[in-house]
Amino acid sequence: MTIRKILVVFSAFFLTGIACGQTSYDLLLKANALTGAGKPEQTVGLLSDYQGIKTDSRLLSIRAEAKLLLGDYTGAIDDFNSANKITQYSGEYGLARIYALKGDAVTSLNHLELSMRSPFRKREKEILLDPAFAKIEERPEWRSFWKKEWYTVPEGKISEIEYYVKAGKTEDAGLIFTELERDYPGNNASVYAGAIIKMSSGKNADATKSLSDLLISEPSNEKYLKALAASQSAASNFAGASASYAKLIGLEVPDADLFLLRAECYRKTGEKEKAMADITKFLTFYPESKRALHLAGKTESGSGNNLKALEYFSENLRLHPNDPECYIDRGNSYFLSKSWQWAVNDYSMSLDLDPYNQEAWLSKGISLVNSGKTEDACHDFRMSFALGNKKAVDYLSKYCIK
Fold it and tell me: How far apart are CA 64 and CA 82, in angstroms?
């Protein structure tokens, strides 16, 4: 059975599962995927067929967002209000967005204030960049709202540190951290900030220790768990990282990427079946994901199943025909199976799209040598060397210098 047919079958099983006890977490991830793919009408249909939605505030909120995208403000308001009845304040931010879109600043800000005083409070940057509030941003009520101190000093400094770390500006992050640690010594926010700065400086073992200590008192803290998993992966502690991702999945964090991240850890610990199970699950939500199909191919190839790897890489090429990396993936697979001419063809296609890939030039040259085309191979070895690949020197010496 081809990979494409397998994905269709899994998708059919998924939809059938709705009537046979499909978990709300799976539906949550599927609904997010459909909405993210610009298919809100399918999100509404999927969730409306599920009886359990009446008691799940998360699913009601997602359906509300989908209805909002479809212009059904009344239906969205009903769903957000229903979500509030199940889990207090869970629908307030959504209601704030709807009334802002309607131009009703007073009602919007009343709901936003309730959200800001709840566990569902969004970050300041997320709110300020939300286009839903564009209609009321020039209103005096909006300006008055933001004169209040909604965030603590440590929260503000943490946001700055996270921004600088993400931008690679570790020195700037360190300066703010010095202030934070001085004014709030021992505060969990300070420990977290120090951990992510350690990670950005390559001190992943130290970061892992700090984050592990934090999680003793806050074992379900999503931010800390994600940072811990990242630090463990960076320190090549893939067994630890897979356990951290498993905790996040167990908490039903609505992020399907967690399955791919855990799959990569399983692949590196040699747990191929677990890795493929996670990749397959991810593909039920995102069947055209280049990243997932690439990882599936690498996992199969790494376990010696090169034919299955070729199927995944070929499917990725069918979906992404102008991506040079997809040609390289399949070329590498042909290379491993010693199908030299097929490898040459794929490396050639990748180089047509990206002529500056030194490894592709080298691999194509090696494939040509094995095809008996040494003169052509020398051209490729020279190209690889000219692009800075020192490994090409050995091949030039062996095959091209007489």
Answer: 10
pLDDT tens-digit series, residues 284-309: 999 999 999 999 999 999 999 999 99
Query: What are the pLDDT digits (tens) for 323-363?
Result: 999 999 999 999 999 999 999 999 999 999 999 999 999 99
- The Cα 187–Cα 341 span in angstroms is 61
Residue 377's nearest CA partner among 352, 402, 354, 344 is: 344
- First-residue to last-residue Cα distance in the chain: 50
User: 263 burial class (0-12, 13-18, 19+ CB within 10 angstroms)?
Assistant: buried
Residue 326 lies in a domain: yes
CATH code of residue 192:
1.25.40.10
Of 357, 354, 346, 353, which is closest to residue 380 (Cα–Cα)? 357
- 156 token code pair: 């503000």
Spatial separation of the C-alpha atoms in residues 368 and 347, rounded to whole Å = 11
Is 177 a domain residue?
yes
Nearest-10 crossing angle of helices 204-217, 222-234: 150
pLDDT at 22 over 80: no
Pick the closest to residue 316 from 299, 291, 279, 347 (CA basis): 291
Cα gap 3→12, rounded to integer Å? 14
